[in-house]
Amino acid sequence: MGDGKLVGIVLVSHSAAVASSVAELAQGLSGAGKSVPVAPAGGTESGDLGTSAELISAAAASVDRGAGVAVLTDLGSAVLTVKALLAEGDELPENTRLVDAPFLEGAVAAVVTASTGADLDAVAAAASEAYGYRKV
């Protein structure tokens, strides 16, 4: 992508602490690449465990740089909430995509790939490919 726009990443977890920590780790591991816009959207507005459509929408708007937004979720209602927002059609920035990927490994792969200036398809593919990462 030669226009200088970066794909934004939103990390949706049931826990604000988990979403923030994964965002911090993924950004830290992206190395010398461009600064990728990453926003955690964890928990509820009151600080409880859960998911919040409002927090997700705000996070997506905050990372939208015109190259698309990749949304990674932890599980259950986080997935359902993002799907509902996408179905609404006007709650998330244009070209927002829910990415089927493991939360931590996928987030790191997405941020590292986005830091190279890759497009949304490449970022989503890299995150999804993280399902194949072997540890032993």
From TrEMBL:
It comes from the Bacteria. PROSITE patterns: PTS_EIIA_TYPE_4. It holds the Pfam family EIIA-man. The keyword Transferase applies. InterPro entries: DhaM, PTS_EIIA_man-typ, PTS_EIIA_man-typ_sf. Residues 6-136 form the PTS EIIA type-4 domain. The keyword Transcription does not apply. Keywords: Transferase. This is PTS fructose transporter subunit IIA. It comes from Streptomyces lusitanus.
